[in-house]
């Protein structure tokens, strides 16, 4: 099958835009509602379960009916499902008490840390592209975590006429 780079780029751009809007909407729903975080998670999980079950029965319905839904589940599969559930709860808590940007940073940091573990444990070979991306992630997390500056004093100090306006009006502005 022939690849189409433009179609791939458009598909990724649409996925990124949808993901961004979903993250912002998710943050709005969590922060603007008096409903508890746990009830919201149950609501989201129920809709996800319904859609997933529909997909399972449309693609593998005959096999599920013959062998059962949990056929082939091993303790490792159950562990991965547990980790995904805990990750979803963790994501909800992060978004509820920080913001969607921090969720993105935590996901990017998790990728960097997983890669470091893969290098140490499995001898993964890193590329220059990945290393530059990881550096950008680390720098952006650092810059985002810097304390905010009070820009109101900066704008008064840079306005040469502000001192003469204060004298004329007889007002002192706190610094």
TrEMBL record:
Residue span of region Disordered: 152-175
Keyword entries, A-Z: Membrane, Sugar transport, Transmembrane, Transmembrane helix, Transport
GO molecular function, one term: pyrimidine nucleotide-sugar transmembrane transporter activity
Principal subcellular localisation of the protein: membrane
Subcellular location(s) per record: Membrane
Domain of life of the source: Eukaryota
Transmembrane segments: 6-26, 38-58, 70-93, 105-124, 130-146
Pfam family, one: Nuc_sug_transp
Keyword hit for Membrane: yes
Name of the protein this chain belongs to: CMP-sialic acid transporter
Top-level taxonomy: Eukaryota, Metazoa, Chordata, Craniata, Vertebrata
């Amino acid at each position: 099958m022939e690849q189409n780079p433009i179609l791939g780029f458009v598909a990724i751009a649409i996925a990124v835009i949808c993901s961004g809007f979903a993250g912002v909407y998710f943050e709005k729903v969590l922060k603007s509602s008096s409903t508890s975080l746990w009830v919201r998670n149950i609501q989201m999980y129920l809709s996800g379960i319904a859609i997933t079950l529909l997909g399972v029965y449309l693609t593998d319905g005959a096999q599920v009916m013959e062998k059962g839904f949990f056929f082939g589940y091993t303790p490792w599969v159950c562990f991965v499902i547990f980790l995904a559930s805990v990750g979803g709860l963790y994501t909800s808590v992060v978004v509820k008490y920080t913001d969607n940007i921090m969720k993105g940073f935590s996901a990017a940091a998790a990728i960097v840390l997983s890669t470091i573990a893969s290098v140490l444990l499995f001898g993964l070979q890193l590329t220059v592209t990945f290393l530059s991306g990881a550096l950008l992630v680390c720098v952006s997390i650092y810059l985002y975590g810097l304390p905010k500056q009070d820009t109101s004093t900066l704008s008064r100090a840079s306005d040469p006429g502000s001192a003469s306006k204060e004298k004329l009006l007889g007002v002192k502005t706190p610094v």
